[in-house]
Automatic annotation (TrEMBL):
Swiss-Prot/TrEMBL keywords: Membrane, Transmembrane, Transmembrane helix, Transport
Transmembrane segments: 42-62, 74-91, 97-120, 132-152, 164-183, 238-261, 276-298, 305-327, 333-357, 378-395, 401-419
GO cellular component, one term: membrane
Pfam families registered for this protein in UniProt: Sugar_tr
PROSITE patterns noted in UniProt: MFS, SUGAR_TRANSPORT_1, SUGAR_TRANSPORT_2
Listed name of the protein: Sugar porter family MFS transporter
Any one Gene Ontology molecular-function term assigned to this protein's record: transmembrane transporter activity
Subcellular localization, as worded in the UniProt entry: Membrane
Major facilitator superfamily (MFS) profile domain segment(s): 7-423
């Protein structure tokens, strides 16, 4: 188990770089706009937004190298992209070059949401799979927190402090890349390429108390249809629908809109700038604590139970936030409700999404299935936050949060009536159960 944990933690570090990369730009935001005298539109769409579109492209096409070249080589490439992005942005003297390197980092983020969960789910024993895959989400949250802290510590060290903020990511990116060199390839991917002996060696380490020949033959059976299949075939409609709905509801909770605009939302609620920023740091801490709770519970109570708890928490917290805006409740009411919202997200969708999507597709279609679910998530993560300023000024914050609340009622119905429990079931057995012949 120690080796499996070490390999899983190594792959999950891609999530740390993801969280760090997404948030680190916030420390350089205003300084870059002042430095390059950019208009709001250019600064938002090109300087700040290019990484997000890189993420969308990385998510859409990341399944191709993950399937073709393997999970390990893709994870290596992701580390290189992060390192180049960090160094390139830190040395940039032009907004277009800066945007190019931010786009490169975005490609790494998008691809990591496919390769890392797929790799961990394929090396993990069924009984520990949820906990090990959710280490990826924990690392995202940790990366976000460390980026905020890093920006805070590096702020004010000189006129070019933003270069250090962005460049420092090259250190964890290089360490991660070196660590990936020593992990083995996924046995299920090796089987898909006919490299049976190599796969058997890894399986013996992953499942020492089980018959490796039997496990390999089950993997081979699962790959039997590989050359002539894709995720859009009728028999895979159910897992495809599950991946779409989990990713869709994840963003329809308003989570990314909230994380991007936390200070603005607190400002709308009447809090001063200092209190708003302090509340934003509180969000990061609550997110991390409840992600840890989710990671510890996912293999004990299951994915469905965590989603059920999270859905109830979403409905209560978002409903209260909506009412607070409608009835002009003041003071700390909205931060408290939003802390409850973050806790609900962290223990439910935050912990479950990457685990669940990595489990529901058969081995030979896992990377393309992950790419579909991840793309749905990232397209909505790009679209919904971009609409928030306009929606707040037109229909108002109360109505926006009411829409999110209603969406979470539908998520609860999805969890109760449609979502299967995947806890403790082998990937091959899940493949047979969820496929409708």
């Amino acid at each position: 188990m120690n080796k499996i944990l070490m390999w899983s933690v190594t792959a999950a570090l891609a999530g740390f770089l993801f969280g760090f990369d997404v948030v680190v730009i916030s420390g350089a935001d205003k300084k870059l706009q002042a430095l390059w005298q950019s208009s709001d539109a250019f600064h938002g769409a090109v300087v700040m937004g290019m990484a997000l579109w890189g993420t969308v492209i990385g998510a859409i096409f990341g399944g191709i190298p993950t399937s073709t070249f393997g999970r390990k080589k893709t994870l290596l490439a992701i580390g290189v992209l992060y390192a180049l992005s960090a160094i390139g942005t830190a040395l940039s003297n032009d907004p277009y070059i800066f945007a190019f390197f931010r786009f490169m980092g975005g490609l790494g983020v998008g691809a990591s949401t496919i390769a890392a969960p797929a790799y961990i789910s394929e090396i993990a024993p069924a009984k520990d799979r949820g906990r090990l895959v959710s280490l990826y989400q924990f690392n995202i949250v940790l990366g976000i927190l460390v980026a905020f802290l890093s920006n805070y510590l590096l702020s004010g060290i000189g006129d070019n402090d933003w270069r250090w903020m962005l460049g420092v990511q090259a250190i964890p990116a290089s360490i991660y890349t070196l660590c990936v060199l020593i992990i083995p390839e996924s046995p299920r991917w090796l089987v898909s390429k006919g490299r049976i002996n190599e796969a058997k060696n890894v399986v013996k380490i992953v499942n020492p108390d089980q018959d490796s020949d039997l496990l390999i033959s089950q993997m081979e059976d699962d790959h039997a249809d590989a050359p002539k299949e894709n995720i859009f075939m009728k028999k895979y409609r159910f897992p495809l629908m599950l991946a779409f709905l989990v990713a869709f509801f994840n963003q329809m909770s308003g989570i990314n809109a909230f994380l991007y605009y936390a200070p603005r939302i607190f400002g709308e609620a009447g809090l001063g700038e200092k209190t708003a920023l302090l509340s934003s740091i509180g969000i990061g801490i609550v997110n991390m604590v409840f992600t840890l709770v989710g990671v510890n519970l996912i293999d004990k109570v299951g994915r469905k139970t965590l989603m059920f708890i999270g859905s109830i928490g979403y409905i209560i917290s978002l409903g209260l936030v909506s009412m607070a805006f409608y009835f002009h409740w003041s003071g700390l009411a909205i931060p408290i409700f939003l802390f409850l919202f973050i806790a609900s997200h962290a223990i439910g969708q935050g912990t479950v999404i990457w685990v669940f999507i990595s489990e529901i597709f058969p081995n030979h279609l896992r990377a393309s299935g992950q790419a579909f679910g991840s793309s749905t998530h990232w397209v909505l993560a790009a679209v919904i936050p971009s609409l928030i300023p306009t929606l707040f000024s037109t229909i108002g914050a109360g109505t926006v949060f009411l829409i999110f609340t209603i969406a979470m009622v539908f998520q609860l119905l999805f969890v109760i009536f449609m979502m299967p429990e995947t806890k403790g079931v082998s990937l091959e057995k899940l493949s047979k159960t969820l496929t409708k012949e």
